[in-house]
Design goal:
With 148 residues, the protein is α+β, with helices and mostly antiparallel strands. It is built from three helices and four strands. The protein has a four-stranded antiparallel β-sheet with strand order 1-2-3-4, with helices on one face. It starts with a helix and ends in an 11-residue tail after the last helix. About 15% of the residues have low confidence.
């Protein structure tokens, strides 16, 4: 029979090894750093649709931004330039805001030969609106947090 410490050490080594393997396989996407041209181009691709919905200029608080295989997936909180909040009553969503989960934006962009372009974006969904985006648009499931 193995001593208690040996069993614990073996289990701990297995957990660390398994965690390292999962971490390595899960890190196939990356987040463009703040201030980078790539990050700006991705957000600029999403901006026109969101500015139309918000009825005015927006800047984004980036909650999540993942890039992989030419796709970018973002979770964004739009706000007015300078950090001022957006009043939902002044948006295209004024009559629907009670049925929405705020103004959070989930967006998907793709980098083509002419740069980044918007593929799809959903504002304020109360469910996982992007669950079919990997199949529908061919985007890698990992950027959404799904298993491949």
């Amino acid at each position: 029979m193995l001593p208690h410490r040996t069993i614990i050490s073996a289990l701990l080594a297995f957990v660390i090894l398994f965690g390292t393997m999962l971490s390595a396989s899960a890190q196939t996407f990356y987040e463009p750093p703040r201030g980078s041209d790539e990050r700006k181009a991705i957000l600029d691709a999403m901006r026109p649709k969101i500015e139309t919905e918000m009825r005015g200029p927006v800047e984004f608080v980036v909650v999540r931004l993942r890039v992989m295989d030419g796709f970018a997936f973002a979770q964004l909180e739009p706000q007015r330039p300078g950090g001022n909040p957006i009043n939902p009553a002044n948006t295209v969503w004024a009559n629907d805001i009670e049925m929405m989960d705020g103004l959070t934006v989930w967006g998907l962009a793709y980098e083509g030969s002419s740069g980044w372009g918007l593929v799809d974006a959903v504002t304020g969904p109360t469910d996982v609106a992007f669950f079919n985006w990997p199949e529908f648009y061919g985007a890698p499931p990992q950027i959404f947090g799904f298993q491949p």
